[in-house]
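Two proteins, back to back. First:
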Amino acid sequence: MSTSNDGVEKGREVRDIAWQLVTLARLAENPPSASSAETSGGDAARACTSAVRRLETIGAVPKGLFLRLGCGSTWSEVLAACQQVTMFLEEECDVDLTADPSG
């Protein structure tokens, strides 16, 4: 049986994942100096894919709505994917990404 506390916890987890994706997007906008927008952002791609899988598991996004990023994904692809997911969460899940994430 689901309780309102479960909904609060799910909302908090969705918000936390959204902020993780915002952080990844910021990293992808300014990749580490040894790489460029068109070189591999493999670790960030894996983190983005993991975040999407978790969002699917908890029912925050429909399964299969977002493409999985491969290890050879570019930083530009990571940026686009993170932006797509966070926009969905803002619009469809009422996640407020203007508020302080620690609040």
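And the second protein:
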Amino acid sequence: MKLLGIFIICAITPLVAGFYENFRKVDQGEPASLDYFFVHYNSPYTRRLLTYAALLTVATSLLFPFDEFFELPILSTLFNIFISLILTFVIPIIIFEKSVI
């Protein structure tokens, strides 16, 4: 089941990066395009995006055994929210790190 979660997150993460890319292009005055949504499935950043997605999924699933052992589902939920808030800007940092503002 965890492998399925890792696969799904790894499949979605480049699409999310494509959304950021599309927003950036629109912000620069270029027209929006569906091509931008899929540009990061085969880009120099794909490996880093997939590594981030896999590590995020593994990190959030590591708390699952503790959740069952201590019977504190709120702890798992709070941990997931905390990790998500901290890592919110990782995808834009990965794809825009070499961009000039």
